Amino acid sequence: MRVYQCEDSLEGVCTAIYRAYEDHVEHQDTWIRVDEELMLFGEYIPVETDLGRAEKVLRTLRRRFGQENYEDLCMALITPDPDKAQAVYRTIVYGLQAGAPLGHLLDHQTDSYVLQTFQLARKAGRECCQMKQFLRFRELERGILYAENQPKNHVLPYLMVHFADRFPQEDFAIRDIGRGLLGVHPAGGEWYLTDSRELLEALGQAALSSREMAYEELFCWFCHKIAIKERRNISLQNQMMPKRFQKYTIEFAKDL
Description:
Structural class: alpha/beta
Order of helices and strands: EHEEHHHHEEHEEEHHHHH
Low-confidence stretches: none
Distance between the termini: 51 Å
Number of strands: 8
Strand order of the largest sheet: 4-5-6-7-8
Shape: elongated
Strand content: 5-15%
Helix content: 40-55%
Number of helices: 11
Largest sheet: 5 strands, mixed
């Protein structure tokens, strides 16, 4: 049994998939892992990320399965599941061998790996959609819009693409607390990710602008005044906005 051990990233997994096909392996006896868990009787092969090889795989996925399924495969790989790389790898193998029609790769859920990939992509996609709705920016003294949250999945790149498209002329930053990452978008420029501790600490300790504090007070007062005490339904509220989002949401944070 061969085990390709690669970096936990889209490019890392795609490089490992390229290596597996390049080595003409028996797919049934091949694993791709992004963690360091040992598998008995496995021949471990370390894989260094190669952007050129990864891009070739990504182009093939777009061409053979279509843009929607390509995005689903990418979405499955941003989850923290330790078996995600194997699930995506075997889903790709299944799709290529079965000749899955364009846009219908994940329809074949009788295959356990295809089903697992579908479920991972759905969970990550749901959280990404929630984050786009629930993320709250706060204006700092220097006019920078700053938001922070702690998502289960690595959705920060998707959030940066989403908000860069909507706020192209704004300086803003989004912090993923759990992963220690910061997405930075300079006004009119290209966004990027950084794990600079100095920058993370500086933004985390920066004071809010006076305008932000005034608007926060007004917004919280507005939310309080429109609430109907007799119709308060905490269970439904937590269902619509999970509590893990509420601690980073202005209208809830002041009540916690």
